[in-house]
Task: structure prediction
Amino acid sequence: MSPIALCRSLLCAALAACLSACAGNGMGLDQGGRPLPPGGLGGGVLTADFNSIQQNVFTPICTVCHSGSNAPHGLHLDAANSYDQLVGVPSVEQPTILRVAIGDPDGSYIIQKLEGTAAVGARMPFGGPYLTQAQIDQFKSWINAGAANN
Ligand code: HEC
Result:
């Protein structure tokens, strides 16, 4: 093989490796196709507990809008406020539905907003990229298990 042909085939192999690794199958990419930080959303692995949800989703993604005096519907998702403003608290858009209803993920407004099934307003995070179903399932497991503050 001539040096040029060898070089071409190496380049091709590298490109093929990248294409298969970066093909938007969820490995390392969010649903908008953008690369995730190493290890997950906030640099860690999202698990079904409140600390992980806070560190990996609320703080890095949601507080861009949900903090400060203009927080939509008064919902602050920074670490100092998020739990108290979610668990057992009626949503503003659908006051008969709690933002987090302990033991009832599908009846929790935050899940409806994350999955895009809420009757009012947009899917969250507003404008995307949206969480994967596997990530939303961690929220659901946390709610099912009692929505503890840890
Ligand atoms: C780019 C700004 C933005 C981001 C980021 C964002 N939101 Fe929102 N959020 C809004 C706006 C604006 C509304 C009100 C309008 C609507 O519902 O479409 C809202 C409404 C909500 C509501 C309804 C509150 C109620 O009481 O009715 C929930 C729940 C919510 N967001 C959760 C989240 C979560 C969880 C995240 C992160 C995964 C997130 N949002 C990220 C802008 C944002």
